[in-house]
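Final report, closing paragraph on structural work. Over the funding period we assembled a curated collection of sequence-structure pairs, and we close with a single example.
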Amino acid sequence: MGGSLPAALPIGKRALIIEDDPAWQQLLMEALEDLGLEADCAADVRAAIALLRERTYALAVVDVSLDPEDHRHRGGFQVLDALAAHEPPIPAIVLTGYATVEMAVEALTRHRAADFLRKEAFQRRAFMEVVARLLQQEPLSPGRSAAAPPVPRPRSAPRGSRVLVVEDDPGWQDLYQELLTELGLSCETAPSYAEALAWLERESFAMLIVDLQLASSMNPFGNRDGLRLLQVARRRGLPTIAVSATASVDEVEMAYQSLGVFAFFDKAAFNRRTFLQFVQQALSSRPTSQAPRPARGLSPEDQAALAALTPREREVLRWMAHGLTNREIAERLVVSPNTVKKQVDSILSKLGVHTRAAAVRKAILGGLLEDPTGDPGASLP
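Its predicted structure, as stored:
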């Protein structure tokens, strides 16, 4: 990263490092000292609680796992709770290895961490910038989230504007609820494609936030029903932010180029403040007309290729759009997986593509998935 290091903070402020690895203790102490902070270290929960009783700290850096023999240890969460319950609350930066999305969500929501950083992606300058930002803020009140300074609400999004969050993970639902509340927005949540459509048919929303992989009775663990919702949002002219933990490059490009999403976030690298900024921008740029943005159409050659698909190949392609594997499609069509594989190969060959995602993209652009019944297995004329 370019630019100068953050300026030193006022002398006399202390930071607490809760970390069981001496090498990381030393690295963090040096970074904090460069900011003018004095640092104390604790290697376990008991030592950290004892130091909190003895001294006053402006900030803490906490490793979630405090057992060198077991990376699944979660003692750092107990420390985060003590920091949040302190009067006044002490902002905490989580810096940990073996991080998962679920761990990050739990730390940021339930345990009120101010920021979450992964050791695998640690950058000294970025860490120092986070520390400087947190310590230059006013102290947090007990009821306020420590995640990031509030972002001003957009003028075009009056307080109380509603957002539909389509997400099947309860932890992420809570995170979105917290973030949208910071903007003065209210939200409804739907865990599935079917429930999201029910909300859209009955209520008015300012925007959508959609996870590509949703709960589904057809394919609980691998579907991509969110792609169909992006298509619905495009037709209705609703600004949409897509989120996924497993999206391929093809799916990201399809979301931007073909389905008109405003922004796309990877859950593994989710940044709260950036997310808030994009929500603000999406609501501010929402057109007054509800007419959908024009989509990029298929070339005459692609249209002809799509029309050349047999009815069974179109049916297979629709199931592919739901993220089903060849074996899962075979079970629904009561044929062998080898038969489905041959049909998939034929689809890719006819459409002139090499990946399933690219084939689904052409199907979306060509309107193949816009069956009024919403049934992937519905026959086509």
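The chain has three domains: 14-135, 162-284, 300-365. The longest strand covers residues 14-18. We thank the funder for supporting this effort.
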